[in-house]
Amino acid sequence: MIFDTHAHYDDKAFDADRDRLLPALNASGVALIVDPGCDAKSSRAAISLAERYAFVYAAVGIHPEEWESCDEDALSEIRAMAEHPKCVAIGEVGLDYYWDDSHREEQKRLFRWHCELALELEKPVIVHDREAHGDCLEIVRDYPGLRGVFHCYSGSAEMAKELLKRGWYLGFDGPVTYKNARKTLEVLEICPPERMLIETDSPYMSPVPMRGKRNDSGNLRYVVEKIAELRGLSAEEVERITLENGVRLFNIKNA
Ligand code: NI
Q1: How far is the CA of 243 from the centre of ligand 1 (A)?
Q2: How many whole angstroms separate alpha carbon 38 and alpha carbon 98?
Q3: CATH superfamily membership of 2-249
Q4: Fewer beta carbons within 10 angstroms: which end of the chain, N or C?
Q5: With bands split at pLDDT 50, 70 and 90, how would you rate the model's confidence at 71?
Q6: Neighbours of ion ligand 1 (CB under 5 A)
Q7: Ligand 1 center to 161 CA (angstroms)
Q8: What pLDDT sits at residue 167?
Q9: What is the pLDDT of residues 134-154, one digit of tens each?
Q10: pTM of the predicted model as reported, rounded to 2 decimal places
Q11: Which ranges constitute the DSSP H helices of 142-219?
C-alpha cells in the first residue's frame, strides 16, 4: 500500500485516461494520493478530483512560477478552497529561482502569504524549492509553528538537518534513481524514516527505468526499492512507514 504525496493528476497529460488510470492505480495498491494545485484553476481541478475519488486528497496554492498571473481574485479563491474538507495542505508554493531569477521579492511575498494562510488554518505546507534553498529556509524560520514537506528535496544535508529539527518532512521522488543523485542520496541516508515521504510529481520526473515517459503513481515502486536498498529496510516497510508519515502530516482521517 503506497501513499503518493505529490501527483498532478489534474494535469492535461492525464486528460485522455485519468478516469481509467486512477481506479486502476487504487486497485493495484496506491492507497492514497495528494494532488497539489499550482494556480487557482488547477487547485479547483484538484479539489474536484478529491470530491470524485475517496482516496484522492487536494492541496491548493499558487506555484512561484505563476506569481505574475496571480491576482486578488485568485488569492481569495485559494483561501476559500483551502477550507474544503478534502484540502489537506497549502501547496505547492515556494520559490523557484531556476525558472525566474528576476522576481525574487514577488515570489517571496506570495510564499509568505501562503505560509500565513497555512498557519491560520492549521494545515501543512507543500514547499517547492528550486535553486532557492537559502531564502526558503529563511522564510520557514520566520514561522516556527509551520510544518510541512520540502517536496522533491534538493538542498544540502546541512539544510535537511535544520528542517528535520524544525519538524519538517522531506519528499523523495524519481531523481533518487538517477545516476547524478549523490547529494540526494546523502540526505536520504541521514533522514529518519519517520520523516520521509515518497512522491512522483506525476506526470513529471519518472524514475529510472521509466525516465522520459509520463510518470504515474505505479512507478513509485522504483523509488521505494531505492530507499529500501539504501536504508536496509524491506520495500513493504518503506511503503508502510511513508504511508503512516503522510497520514500523520496531512491529518487524514479514516485512512
Ligand atoms: Ni509538483
Answers
A1: 19
A2: 17
A3: Metal-dependent hydrolases (3.20.20.140)
A4: N
A5: very high
A6: 201
A7: 23
A8: 98
A9: 999 999 999 999 999 999 999
A10: 0.97
A11: 157-165, 182-190
